Structures are given as structure tokens and as C-alpha cells.
Amino acid sequence: MIRTMRSRSTLRSTTRAAALGALVIALAAGCGDTSGDDGSPADGDSDPSVSDGGEATGDDASGGDGSAGGDTSEAVGASDAGGADGAPSDGGTAGDGAGDDAAAGGAPLPESADLATEQLPVPVEDAVAIALETAGGGETVSVSIDHDDDRDWVWEIEVALDGREHEIDIDAATGEVLQHEEDDDRVDEPAVDVTSPMTPAEAIDLALQKHDGRVSSWDLDSDDGTIRYQIDLERSGGDDTEIEVDVETGEVRVED
Q: In what ranges is there compositional bias, type Low complexity (predicted)?
């Protein structure tokens, strides 16, 4: 009887010890879990949008409208792509502007300009085209360029059309037709061409091989049926020299 009571007492002690051990283990496990009932992360991260791998997820990783976020290398703002009005940010302009420049011409050359080295805003080919358009067609029979005290540099071009003579003055800076006169005098002179067989630049080069000086003016026309350039040189000594260049033969003659 006594032995049986001791066995029961021992069993109760063992059972209590086991229960106590289970309670200690449960408490230890509970302290290690920091996740609360509100679903806060158990790994110590304060931002629920960041996973264990460190990548942003959810709304923080995308725009408010569901667009992809995070990587900004492909998303270029309006200020990077251009100005507020859509103009390119590389210094260019949205429009071409070339037409305005062509219509406006350029700044006129000073009176002291050397036509051997400086280019007029309206080149001779353009001036001839303007003259022919103004006359309504025809053939060019003379071309000259000179400085006018009142009108700066002026192209003076003579066009023959249907037995009539058209004398046309053109502003060499703007291309504006300054004067257009017609008369009934029949023009028997041959047509001239500033592009063939000799250009003004080629004639000026030949003239400068004879004499140095500033080219102050030139003209292209014919004399007794011979087409020639007449080039006016202003020399350092103050003397003016006139040189003729035959467009067919290239012969150069200095006028005394």
C-alpha cells in the first residue's frame, strides 16, 4: 500500500515537471516571434513593401496608376526631352528658319570690301535668276557689280527679251529689285553666262596675276562681239587699274 502511494506521487511529480517544461518552451517560442496580430513583419523590417530580398514591391515600386516604377533610366521627363513647348533641348529649333534667312539675305559688305576675297550676300547666280524672273524671261547680255553711295552694293543686269531691253538693279544684300526699266531698243549683243566658259572668280584670279590690288567692281558684257570681263583694281598706290579678260581665250589685257 505504501509502495503504491509512492508510485502515484512520483508520477504526479513527473507529470508536473513535463508540463512545466512544455510551458517554458512555449514561452521561449512566443518571445522569439515578433509578428503581431496586425500582420507586421517578423524579420524586423519596418516597411511591409520591402521583402527579405531587399526589393521594393507594391505601390512604392510602381506609380500610383500602376505604371512601373523604381527604374528611372527609361523614364525621361519633359525637361530632359526638350523645353516646355516641345522644342529640342540641344540648342536647335523646332522650325527650320532657312527660308527666312534666304529671304532676308545678309548684312551688306562695307564699301572697302575686296570682291576677290569677300562674298556678297546675294551671289551673282541668284541675282541673274532674279533679273530673268523680273523681266519674264529672255537672255542676259550684261552683268555688273559696283558700290553705290546711296544704295550700297548693287547688281546691274541687262536682259534682252522680244526686242526689248530690260535694265534691272538688284540689292546685293537683300535681293530686292531696286529698279526695272524697259525700252524698245533692239539688243544685238550676244548673251553672257556667269557660269561658263569662265566664272567671275576665275577671271579675277587671272587679273590678279597681272597686278595686285583690291577688286572694287567688275562687269561681264561684250565688245565688238567678244565677251569679256572688265575688272577694276584699286592699287596700294592709289591708282586704279582696269583689266580685261577674254572668256574664250583667257587672254588678259591691262587698260592704260
A: 30-54, 70-91
Residue 177: partners with Cβ closer than 8 Å, 6 or more residues away:
130, 134, 168, 169, 170, 171
How far apart, in whole angstroms, are the C-alpha atoms of residue 244 and residue 232? 9
Phi then psi for residue 180, to 5 deg, are: -140, 110
Q: pLDDT tens digits for 13-38?
A: 444 545 455 544 544 455 444 444 44
Query: Rounded distance, CA 114 to CA 116, Å?
Result: 5
Give pLDDT tens digits for 152-194. Answer: 999 999 999 998 999 999 999 999 999 999 998 777 889 999 9
Residues 6 or more apart in contact with residue 54 via CB below 8 angstroms:
none
Q: What is the pTM of this model?
A: 0.59
Topology given in CATH for the domain delimited by 106-256 = Nuclear Transport Factor 2; Chain: A, (3.10.450)
CA distance 96 to 99: 8
